[in-house]
UniProtKB/TrEMBL annotation:
Family: Belongs to the ABC transporter superfamily. Ycf16 family.
InterPro entries, A to Z: AAA+_ATPase (IPR003593), ABC_transporter-like_ATP-bd (IPR003439), ABC_transporter-like_CS (IPR017871), FeS-cluster_ATPase_SufC (IPR010230), P-loop_NTPase (IPR027417)
Residue ranges annotated for the ABC transporter domain, each copy included: 4-246
Gene3D superfamilies cross-referenced by the UniProt entry: P-loop containing nucleotide triphosphate hydrolases
One Pfam family per UniProt: ABC_tran
Keywords: ATP-binding, Nucleotide-binding
Protein name listed in UniProt: Fe-S cluster assembly ATPase SufC
Amino acid sequence: MTTLRIENLHVAVSGKEILKGVNLTVKTGEMHAIMGPNGTGKSTLSQTIMGHPAYEITAGHIYLDAQDLSDLPVDARARAGLFLAMQYPSEIQGVTNAEFMLAAINARRPEDQQMGIMAFIEQLDEKREFLGMTEEMADRYLNAGFSGGEKKRNEILQMMMIQPKIAILDEIDSGLDIDALKVVSRGVNHMRSKDFGTLMITHYQRLLDYIVPDYVHVMMGGKIVKTGDAALAQKLEAEGYAGLRDELGLDIVLTDEDADQYVEVAHD
């Protein structure tokens, strides 16, 4: 079993505190969802877990099993078994999807266990067909010219090929039509196993109709304020975040300000 453990995490962006004491544990074999209004720090959490340099940890720690990740670069975290499906995947000219995935797979393997090209192609074809992706997508430059839905499918294909221990899925439902959402959800559900854990970040119940989580966490004001099962997401859909805020007696103003800050940093 692999465990991602976040303890009392405080994070600032450009000197402004966004996360204000997040505590969370995700184990392989579990599916977690984080919900919350815009500006509450959900995407900040995902970027911080993966080590984006613009996000400064001012207090607290991030552990993968006994290893403290807080000072490790992004590539070291990926090699340790973390994976981030980004809300806005980058486009990289000159590197094909197939080249990127094979390099990522072998970066996590010792030299005497490198995946060969024939085994790679066989697995790639199997998973590509499972997601309804065309053969030519493997030879296209990474995300270059892809539609929003193609980028999200491609992120799931990468996850299925790389086989991380813990995957963070940052709003993979954003901008998807219902058919694309079903395909993406099918890929995530296919990964369910005792050796794989997921942290899904979303605004909406819609995603959780297709990927039923074991735990739902609600973030407000830079903290996790409530945890429950899938029924909690249904309650939020019916009553909204303001209703939960008032129920918990929280002195929080729901605003888009922090979300705008995130988008600005993520595109720098």
